[in-house]
Amino acid sequence: MESNQLPTNEYASFYSPYINALGNVVLLEELETCLHDFIKFVQNIPMDKFDYRYAEGKWTIKDIIQHLIDAERIFAYRALRISRNDKTPLPGFEENDYVDNANANDRSIQDLLTEFSAVRQSTLLLFKSFSEEQLKRMGIASNAAVSVRAIGFIIIGHQKHHQKVFQERYL
What we know:
The chain has about 170 residues and is mainly alpha-helical. It contains seven helices and two strands. The protein has one domain (about 5-170): Four Helix Bundle (Hemerythrin (Met), subunit A), CATH 1.20.120.
């Protein structure tokens, strides 16, 4: 499925900027392609920028990469639960608390990228395992209806959003 074919009733409106910014991409292809694009992009960032904050209280690039890792794990877990027809409403998460407790700035950029790649490979294998029926299944996460396939596009859009923030505010 392509992102521009995703019905808007399969995700909360607050995810619209992520999905709308994707243009016309195929879910599985883009999950893989944007992984490689992101790693290449981050590897070209000057080393002195990884601990930089563009304003007081803002996250560093390392914090954001850890945030992407944590969020993708949570989104993939949601996709798994919903794909398996689990009807339990899934809670949201407080991203600032996660960043505050992740110690990303104590890690090397290579460790973060290795973990990011491992998480994405796991996500990619998970999404490849879903049938068309499972991809269309709907559940509740963060008090909003969402489909499994929408979660995949949200993962991609979330990553691309933060990559754009890197370009605009950190470099």
